[in-house]
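INFO batch 0412 | record 1 of 1 | parsing
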Amino acid sequence: MTELSLLHGFSAPTAPLTDVRFFRPPLPSGYVRRPRLCEQLAVGLSGRLLLLSAPAGFGKSSLAIEFCESLPDEWRSLWLGLSVRDNDPGRFLERLLNGLRRCFPGLGAEAFGLLKLRQRHQPFAFEEWLDGLLDELALRLDPAKPVLLVLDDYHLAQGAVLDRCLQFFLNHLPDGLLLLVTSRQRPDWHLARLRLSRQLLELHEQDLRLTTEETRELLLSQGTQLSSEILTSLLQRSEGWVAGLRLWLLTAAETGGAEGFAHAPHGAEGLIRDYLLEEVIECQPAEVQAFLYETACQERFCAELCDALREAHDSAAILAHLQAHQVFLVPLDEQGQWFRYHHLFSDLLRARSAPGLELPSASLHLRACRWFNAQGLLDEAIEQALLAGQPDVAANLVQNLSEEQLLAEQNVAMLLRWKMDLPDSLLASTPRLVVLYSWALALACQLDAAEELAAQLGRFLPAPSALQQQSLLAQWLAVSGVIARGRGESQRAQQYCAEALAGLPLERYGQRLMCLSTLANLAIVQGDLWRARGLNREALELAQRVGNPLFEALAHYDRARTLQARGEVLRALDEVRQGLDRLRGLPPQRYYAMRARLTLYEGVLLTLRLQPENARVCLRAGIAEARACRDISLLIGYGVLASLEGRSGRVAEAFAQLAEAERLMHIWDVPPVYYLAIITLVKCDLWLMQGQVELADAWLARLAETYNGEQAAAAPEFHPQLPLHIELQRAALERIQGQLPEAERRLRALSLRAQTTGGQLLGVVAQVQLTLLLRVNGREREAQQQLGSSLQAAAGGGLLPFEELLEHQPDWVREQLLLRPECPLREALLAVLPGPVSESPSLSHSAPVEALSSREMAVLQLIAQGCSNQEVSDHLFISLHTVKTHARHINSKLGVGRRTQAVARAKDLGLLS
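INFO prediction complete | emitting tokens
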């Protein structure tokens, strides 16, 4: 071998440079650098131990190489790649001493001689030997020129005696020496004291998984570009496993170009299979291999379930072994009770039959079914019965699921998945199954199928007794009322739900609560918010009597919607948080529609409080859980998220959110009556932002004809005040079109209509829009009076209606607010206003300013004259979207956040007179 830098930073080696025992390998071709992890490791340079512990193929050694290459100039590194032969402590210590002597010539001459004289079959005082060597090493080390000692693949050499030697080594490590260890299994060292004293920095599998960006970079380094859909699937399947991704790339390339890259990786195919077999499975003892194959059929498992599957009692010990040896075991809780296997690892285990394992998978699933049922985990017991190919067993178990449990959890995705595997004859075999699946289909908005199945209840009439007959009829009325509400048939829905409440037995409290919720929603549509409030109170009292937290959450959700419609935003937010508090004890790994709805609605209310970033967090979390439950409440989340993106200038992202919502509705086969108007209304708002006035005009006219015409349709369930929102959009359109008298008349009529129907929040929006209209037209006294009325009506805490006024008239609003007595609303509005222009740090004369283009100067001059965006658009013959783009560029170049600040800054710089 030629003269290479085998040992970073070491000069005057005592061993020949051809000695490969201390060779630090180069980074592999196409390696994706991971500076974020190197930065984390660099934090531990002041400690004693850096530990990289993860399963095979997670890039531990490559990261260690990269870290060595990125060390500060004063650091030196020594690389020891270990093998199985090094599990002899004497051989290991001899290698360690040889390595150290490359840096410190003559180190440990006496210790080296003692090692050479030892006999392997005779006891040797390793700790005493290390103590002397470390004392001598401490005299040679210079803390100003520290050394990083890397032990790569420690798991190959690990043993009880060597663990004790290294524990002693760590405990007495001299200053100027740091240990970095890579291992597939966690060393059996006492690390708690090191961790407590901040002397240990440890990276696990979760840390080493490739991020989305790192995965994309890896693909690009191999000349591969994938669609976002395939990339998402790839990330989900690979779970950031570096070796799995590289092996998949090789396999995909061999199978032929684009076609090979169109499928996500699978652990039972090609190179990934061979790697896992050779590097992981076949390295395990026979009893552990059998355990892996027997438990792989389960999506999640614990020691007790594994014992039931295997009819054994040693599963806890084997799971501990798998954890210690990092065998692709993924924990699912903080208590270390539930686990699953890495997706690609379980693929391989399920695709192969274990040597000597005779029990078929169906029998294993049936054993799991019995165990889950005994634990009261009914949904998982049903899943296992279906996987075992026993639909009759599954149907019997489904009948044990009460309507109350179904209506409380509303996880219809699970029930519909079962329905696909159950024969239709079984679904309609008992009244209980008919009622259960009628509710499931109704909640999933499969209205025709729900109505058809509910009609099957007629086959069980007359019932054996008058009481059973009344109960069965009342249950049909309840589900039919919800179906009618979904169709927009308000009168039928109201009639059916009222009759169901009169006939339902008290023990059918779940169905009673669904009827109360439906009637409250219809009351909001009709503008009778006092009646809605009374129905909400009745529902909450019922839910509290039965003590079901999910039903209490539903009642809090309905109350919050009523309060928000009345403009009491802060009370609504408190109501939502009370509902979420009732759900704190629910298992986090399961999905609940009510938790999704409350989380989404918290995002809606935070948007009304002008807290967009916090709102986005809630909306995205709510959308994720609603998707898992197949709950169409996610429409709320996508709509509000799209509006937030639009107001932030990210119109393309806003339309993407709406497109995803529409795509899900198509996939779930949801009738357009549920979602089309909601999505179209948000699109109209975005079109107005872009200046696409004609498009918005056409669609707003259609919406108005449908929901505000002579034969107006009922507003959809998730947007009960849709007609009022349409009128607001039409007023905004008229303002943009310059039809100011028409806009003023519409806003005044809307304000009055909202007040008479109890929709105070939308009334505030109309009043604030009217204030802005009057102010722009120079009607100062009227604008001041209108602002006063708006503030009085908005005492419930809604700030969003004031957003446009705050943006376009901040100084005037501040002036008016300071003239009024202190109150929470006044202080909240002052807090979100930009600071006075003269106090803005962005107006510093020393701040460099990028030159404005001639078009930007023209826009700025018109802004300085008090022109609105639309007036600027009309003067310069450019679209409204282009005006807003120029305005953002102006603000960015001048280092300000508002148009008034931009004008002041430009005057400060002499750009405007």
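INFO post-check: Residues 466-487 form the longest helix (22 residues).
INFO record closed
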